[in-house]
Write a structure and sequence with these properties.
- The structure is a single chain.
- The chain has 3 helices and 5 strands.
- By secondary structure, the chain is of the alpha/beta class.
- It has a single domain, classed as Double Stranded RNA Binding Domain.
- Helix 2 packs parallel to helix 3.
- The protein is elongated, with a radius of gyration of 21 Å.
């Protein structure tokens, strides 16, 4: 029993020590200990080709990542850690041309401009474009595959943005 009590005290001590280090999650995020809130502004779609659901889907995915992978409280605006920006490009282009000069594959690309601010460490602030793409067979209509492609693209974009902002890769 004494060993269990010592282990319990050690675990509690480590928990208090780690709480003050500024590392808040098992995702590898490094967040200043003073930071308590995060805000993710709505990302409007300013691309020439507009997917009507893309702004909502992207904004919600980034908000979900911040609430699920950190212990920060989500606020409407002005968070200690803050994200804002816009979708700047949404396009499909042919990428694999066959001998008959027709496209065998098409590529859907999404680009998002992100402005990140960290109230407690301004050296981490950035403004950067993030882009990701997914290829699909040209015999498939974009409308038929758009939802699954954009979900995959959004997931990759959110991961890249999270890593740049909070994991410092």
């Amino acid at each position: 029993m004494r060993i269990r009590a010592k282990i319990a005290v050690l675990v509690l001590a480590l928990a208090f020590v780690c709480h003050d280090c500024g590392v808040y999650s098992f995702s590898g995020a490094s967040i200043p200990a003073e930071a308590k809130t995060v805000s993710v502004d709505y990302f409007p779609n300013h691309a020439q080709l507009v997917n009507p659901m893309l702004s909502n889907d992207f904004t919600n995915a980034l908000r979900d990542a911040m609430t699920n992978q950190t212990t920060l409280d989500m606020v409407e605006s002005g968070g200690d850690i803050a994200f804002e920006g816009e979708i700047t490009d949404y396009r499909t282009t042919p990428v694999a041309i066959t001998s008959g000069q027709t496209a065998a594959m098409n590529r859907l690309t999404v680009t998002v401009k992100v402005r990140f601010s960290n109230r407690f460490d301004e050296t981490k602030d950035f403004e950067q474009n993030f882009s990701h793409y997914e290829d699909y067979p040209s015999d498939q209509d974009l409308n038929a595959v758009q939802q699954s492609l954009t979900a995959t693209i959004i997931e990759a974009l959110v991961e890249d943005i999270f890593n740049k902002a909070l994991v410092n890769w």
